[in-house]
Amino acid sequence: MKPKVLVTREVFYEVLEYLSQYFEVTSNQSDSLMEPGTLAVNLSDKEGALVTLSDRIDSTLLSCCPDLKAVCNIAVGYDNIDLDACTKARIMATNTPGVLDDTTGDFTWALILATARRLTEAESYLRSGQWDGWKLKQFLGMDVHHATLGIFGLGRIGQVVARRSIGFEMKVIYQDVRRAGPEIEQACRASFVDKNELLAQADIVSVHVPYSPATHHLIGKQELERMKPASVLINASRGGVVDDAALIESLRSGAIAAAGLDVFENEPKLHPGFLELKNVVLAPHIASSSKATRLKMAMLAAQNLVAALAGETPPNLLNPF
């Protein structure tokens, strides 16, 4: 008899077909978010699960799932999973690194350009019928070419963003918990600086760090005050890394010029202050959302699940025990 597994949100047909070769699959193809109680009931007799960032996997849930052996996240981040609780319960947890780096890097650049050149503000102006002709000083933005790009987190995605900047002939500076190797710095043409220097020098600050207690509000009121008044902030990493309330106040006051955001604190809830502002570009957590990349992510999560329930070490195990 095949092991039972749950897919908590809608996935591609190819992924279900692959999983069905090994498991008895229950899939939430209606894509409705399961409340914690519903998720617990659906997982109570399952050995494995493909989950997403919207699914909270914690000790309360795991206590209802005596047969569960593996939880495989369709995401790079895993702040939705309590790794300590999984390890204590002898449940393997995995993620999907690597397959979305280029796509997320591309989207970061979409945010950089749209924010610097006030694209969404200008489009809204045009669509509302307000445009009455060319004007010399209409929607003046900032040049991206030759600007200084400051990157928090020169990991895989940060490196993609840095390499893309070469075509814009930018100066790249970065800050991270540890300095990158000389070969990475050379490939990215990036210089290591401290946090305050990055904030003071960068015309564009782009955040690419995982969310954790250590990175909570990495960019807050004090950091925003250190940025140039003409600078822009880009966040395509995780909500909570930036203090949304402080950012809104900085955008209102003109402490910084603009922001481009793909992630938010408490998403999908959105701080209503963002909707009152014209100098912010907003996207609903879609930085990795190309069909090819999202399929790779889901398939990698499925491969992790197959390996885990076959008694093997999954390729992207987060909590070896």
Could you characterize what this model shows?
This protein has 321 residues and is of the alpha/beta class. It folds into 2 domains: 4-99 and 291-309, Rossmann fold, CATH 3.40.50; 101-282, NAD(P)-binding Rossmann-like Domain (Rossmann fold, 3-Layer(aba) Sandwich), CATH 3.40.50.720. The protein is 34% helix and 15% strand. It contains 12 helices and 12 strands. The strands form 2 sheets. The protein has a 7-stranded parallel sheet, with helices on both faces. Helix 4 links the parallel strand 4 and strand 5 (92-94).
Walk me through the topology:
Layout: E1 4-7, H1 13-20, E2 24-27, H2 36-43, E3 48-51, H3 59-62, E4 70-73, H4 83-88, E5 92-94, H5 101-116, H6 119-127, E6 148-152, H7 156-164, E7 171-175, H8 182-188, E8 190-192, H9 195-201, E9 204-207, H10 221-226, E10 232-235, H11 244-253, E11 258-261, E12 280-282, H12 291-309
Parallel strand pairs: 1-2, 1-3, 3-4, 4-5, 6-7, 6-9, 7-8, 9-10, 10-11, 11-12
Helix pairs in contact: 1-12, 5-7
Using only CA atoms, what is the Rg? Answer: 21 Å
Structural class: alpha/beta
Low-confidence stretches: none
**Quaternary structure type:** single chain
Global morphology: globular
CATH superfamily of the largest domain: NAD(P)-binding Rossmann-like Domain
CATH fold name of the largest domain: Rossmann fold
Largest sheet: 7 strands, parallel
Q: Identify the CATH architecture of the largest domain.
A: 3-Layer(aba) Sandwich
Separation, N- and C-terminal Cα atoms? 27 Å
